[in-house]
Write a structure and sequence with these properties.
It is built from three helices and seven strands. With 135 residues, the protein is α+β, with helices and mostly antiparallel strands. The chain has two domains: 1-30; 37-134, PH-domain like. The strands form two sheets. The protein has a four-stranded antiparallel β-sheet, with helices on one face. Strands 5-6-7 form a three-stranded antiparallel β-sheet, covered by helices on one side. A hairpin with a 2-residue loop joins strand 3 and strand 4.
């Protein structure tokens, strides 16, 4: 390999390393998770002014959570790209229980369906969803 080829190879490698560093620095490709109940509450409260979460059902993997306030209103929070998105849970949200999993389908198509692995608590949260359809 001649000197020009070595210079080109070095410049290419430097560019690749710079792009990799930049991607990491701005958080692209991150795998956001809801760390704990306090994190889920903070995300729900940030999404809606005046919402004060008191109870959380967090997906075992940390990709989503349901946050309930003292009035019984609920918000679903989910990983969305590198960030999080939250939507209120109301009568338009369809809930489906399958053993330890609760799937919530939001009317807004871009938000999509959210499946939470809640273990033995899945049934309790599903019954809370039924309260919206009766109320």
């Amino acid at each position: 390999m001649n000197q020009a080829g070595l210079i080109q190879l070095g410049a290419s490698l430097a560019t690749v390393f710079f792009v990799a560093w930049l991607v990491g620095r701005i958080g692209l490709g991150a795998d956001p998770r809801i760390e704990d109940a306090a994190h889920a509450i903070r995300l729900a409260e940030d999404a809606e002014a005046g919402f004060r979460g008191t109870e959380v059902a967090r997906d075992r993997a940390g990709f989503a959570a349901i946050v309930r306030n003292g009035e019984g209103r609920m918000m679903v929070v989910r990983a969305h790209g590198n960030h999080f998105a939250a939507r209120p849970v109301d009568a338009s949200v369809i809930g489906r229980l399958d053993k330890d999993f609760l799937t919530l389908t939001i009317a807004e198509r871009q938000f999509g369906a959210v499946t939470l692995q809640l273990g033995k608590d899945a049934g309790m949260w599903a019954s809370r969803m039924r309260e919206f359809s009766r109320g």
